[in-house]
Amino acid sequence: MLCGADESAVNICEEVFALVRKNNAFQEEEACIAKGDGLVTKRYGMSREETFDKCRLCGEIVVPPGCSLGEHSHTGEVEIFYMVSGELTVYDDGGPGQTFLPGDVMSTGGGGKHSVRNLSGKPATLFAVIIL
Hints:
This protein is mainly β. It has a single domain, classed as Jelly Rolls, CATH 2.60.120. The chain is 0% helix and 53% strand. The protein has strands spanning 2-3, 9-12, 18-20, 26-31, 39-44, 55-63, 68-73, 78-85, 88-92, 98-100, 105-109, 113-117, 124-131. The chain has a six-stranded antiparallel sheet, with no helix packed on it. Strands 7-12-9-10 form a four-stranded antiparallel sheet, with no helix packed on it. It has a three-stranded antiparallel sheet with strand order 1-2-3, with no helix packed on it. Strand 9 (88-92) and strand 10 form a beta hairpin. It is globular, with a radius of gyration of 16 Å. The relative contact order is 0.21. Residues 1-16 have low confidence and may be disordered.
């Protein structure tokens, strides 16, 4: 049974889970993420509170052509990426780049370093969740 149904969000009774409508998601553009190149768009699907303090990021990331997320690590958390559209090159712990295509899933954590770069001529969209 749905409670409090309205245009912007739907919450399930007893806070079992929350559903955030696409038009209600918070969006921001951020430059030089982890010393990467260019301007990347983040669309937060859910806030930390809406994930019951279990995720610090849950949303879509759009990486334009030529842009990147610089090398960084996740200690004490796990990051999961699902490639929605486009193509990215993923670098893991300084190794050679691997092509990341729609439908591919990647996880990283435990302090290992990684970075992501869009070497294609089209925007790339991935869905990312950082679990605490």
